[in-house]
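User: What would this chain look like folded?
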Amino acid sequence: MTLLSTFVGTSLCASSANTLNQVIEVENDKMMKRTCQRPLPTARISPQAATAIAALSLLWSFTPKVITFNLPLALHSASILLLPLF
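Assistant: Here's the prediction, encoded as structure tokens.
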């Protein structure tokens, strides 16, 4: 159970960070061949919807860690969110 909650919580937090990074970089992604077909540059999903998905993923990432471990550890692991934003 410990390994599963760590994996799920970390994966959700990382997906939240990646989604927020794509929201921030949407204008740059439109100009690059490699990224121009992503959902945000092609307007298949709105920036507001992507931000909402990122927020939900972040909130859901806390639940397994708080239940299995504790709140300070869950908050500390949220630092994953900051890594792709720089």
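The two ends are 32 Å apart (CA to CA). If you want, I can go into more detail on any region.
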